[in-house]
Amino acid sequence: MCHLKTDNPVALQALLSETLFIPKDEEESKASLIRNVADGATGREEEEFIYQGDKTTGVLFILRYPDYPYFSPQAEEAFVKTLGALSLSFENVAVVNLANPHNPNDFKRIMQFFQPTKITLLGVEPISLKLPEIAHNAYMKGRVATVFNTFSFEEMFADVQKKKMFWNEFKTFIGI
């Protein structure tokens, strides 16, 4: 039997059931090793963004949740239900969290990498991406993609009216 040697965090996670800790000084250098893996000509291709889902469908959700990899548990449940109501799922949309320090907060790079046709900003102000002002629950059509600006799920949990406004406009947006 040969001995496997790796410092790849994804491989280690798959092989081990215990939680591993890295010294703080090594953590940042190891963080650069963590990448999404996508099918490519070589079978593995390092990605510029860390994201969840499938970027090839053209549907992208951009959020900024500093306390979670993507959503809070309650927000993730609401997101999955919202997608399901429109025959979508995590597998056929892409979700990127701009609070992840690896992900560039640059709209041009987002467009180049994901090549979306429909973008939903969940609580991310358009101005933070150097986009023109877009009212909440409104969308702006660009040359390549349409951007829908709406509230974060936490804002919708706190205000049922925001949730209703989101749902009515989101159904129209996805149907475009």
Automatic annotation (TrEMBL):
It comes from Sphingobacterium phlebotomi. This is Uncharacterized protein.
